[in-house]
Amino acid sequence: GTMEMIPLGERESINMVIKPQSGLNMGKGNGKSLETTVSGGVVGLIFDTRGRPLVLPEDDEERREKLIKWYLSLGVYPEKKLKGYK
Predict the structure, then answer these.
(1) How far apart are CA 40 and CA 36, in angstroms?
(2) Angle, CA of 7, 12 and 16, to the nearest 5°
(3) What's the mean pLDDT in 79-85?
(4) CA of residue 25 relative to chain centroid, distance
(5) DSSP 8-state assignment for residue 83
(6) What 3-state DSSP class applies to 62?
(7) 72 phi/psi in degrees, rounded to 5
(8) Predicted confidence (pLDDT) per residue in 13-65, tens digit
(9) What angle do CA 26, 32, 33 make, to 5 degrees?
(10) Element at 36 (helix H, strand E)
(11) What is the pTM of this model?
(12) Dihedral sign of CA atoms 73, 77, 81, 84 in order
């Protein structure tokens, strides 16, 4: 899975339809779509579809790559600051 961030302010809201995979339940039953209104927060609206439990690779290089990918998807660090860790 991935993480995505949508810039949506704290006082902003949007209507959306969430369409889960067949085995996931968003409150309407397994695989059933949910139409709802969502609000932004301090950092926007974050979608986290990484699955649980979170599993990080044991290999140092692979683990760094995965963490950097997550950091970049959320914009938590400037890409130039992360280049030295790749």
Answers:
(1) 13
(2) 80
(3) 82
(4) 17
(5) G
(6) helix
(7) -65, -40
(8) 999 999 998 888 999 999 999 999 999 999 899 999 888 899 999 999 999 99
(9) 75
(10) strand 34-39
(11) 0.73
(12) negative
Please report the pLDDT score of residue 82 as a whole number: 85
DSSP 16: E
CA atoms of 38 and 2, how far apart (whole Å): 19
Alpha helix segments (H runs only) across 1-86 = 60-74, 79-82
Residue type, 60: D
Find how far residue 34's CA is from the centre of its chain: 18
Domain ranges within the chain, ordered by starting residue: 1-51, 56-86
Consecutive H or E run containing 80: helix 79-82
